[in-house]
């Protein structure tokens, strides 16, 4: 990594985000990844977005699914965030999840969840900006979110 890339990672990381699980059912099994790039975009129509790296091997599997689940992880789900963001291994081992009738994979006890379809994708540098339409959603307002800041997981204090 060049110095410029290191600086970008360090300074981008100064902006705190949540951690979302982006996941769907493929051949009856859960497939997904962690994303700190999740952002709500529009109320009417209801749209949210994530940025997916061109190096991701999981996004090409998810992007053609009819529906994709997005779960906003709770503060108690740091281990789940680590697992879903790891490069190898079985990401869903020990992670409680459920699937919906239309094939979304949602993480149990998450702070919020969305049932989405891909609306638009834009190539932007080394990522795709993916805009998703929201079809269903809910939040557990008593559950504080997991926070990602400076390359580390945090809990709100
Ligand atoms: C906290 C955290 C947030 C992440 N956010 C993103 C993200 O927004 N976009 C992305 O493309 N990858 C993100 N990643 C990396 C993916 O979760 C995953 O590790 C990466 O896509 C490589 O796995 P894959 O080849 O299975 O896609 C994040 C990882 C972690 C640990």
TrEMBL record:
UniProt xrefs under InterPro entries: Flavin_Rdtase-like_dom (IPR002563), NADH-dep_flavin_reductase (IPR050268), Split_barrel_FMN-bd (IPR012349)
Pfam family of the protein (one): Flavin_Reduct
Keyword Oxidoreductase appears in the UniProt entry: yes
SUPFAM superfamilies: FMN-binding split barrel
Gene Ontology terms for molecular function: FMN binding; riboflavin reductase (NADPH) activity
Keyword terms of this UniProt record: Oxidoreductase
Record domain Flavin reductase like: where: 12-155
Family: Belongs to the non-flavoprotein flavin reductase family.
PANTHER family assigned: FLAVIN REDUCTASE (PTHR30466), FLAVIN-DEPENDENT MONOOXYGENASE, REDUCTASE SUBUNIT HSAB (PTHR30466:SF11)
Entry protein name: Flavin reductase
Species annotation: Actinomadura spongiicola
Organism classification: Bacteria, Bacillati, Actinomycetota, Actinomycetes, Streptosporangiales
């Amino acid at each position: 990594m060049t110095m410029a890339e290191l600086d970008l990672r360090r300074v981008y990381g100064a902006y705190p985000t949540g951690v979302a699980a982006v996941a769907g059912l493929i051949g009856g099994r859960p497939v997904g990844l962690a994303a700190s790039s999740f952002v709500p975009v529009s109320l009417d129509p209801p749209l949210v977005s994530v940025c997916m790296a061109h190096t991701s091997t999981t996004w090409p599997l998810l992007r053609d699914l009819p529906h994709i689940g997005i779960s906003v992880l709770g503060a108690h789900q740091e281990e789940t965030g680590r697992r879903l963001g790891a490069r190898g291994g079985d990401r869903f081992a020990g992670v409680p999840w459920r699937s919906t009738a239309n094939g979304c994979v949602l993480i149990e006890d998450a702070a919020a969840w969305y049932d989405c379809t891909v609306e638009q994708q834009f190539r932007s540098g080394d990522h795709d900006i993916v805009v998703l339409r929201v079809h269903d959603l809910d939040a557990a307002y008593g559950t504080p979110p997991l926070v990602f800041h400076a390359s580390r997981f945090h809990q709100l204090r």
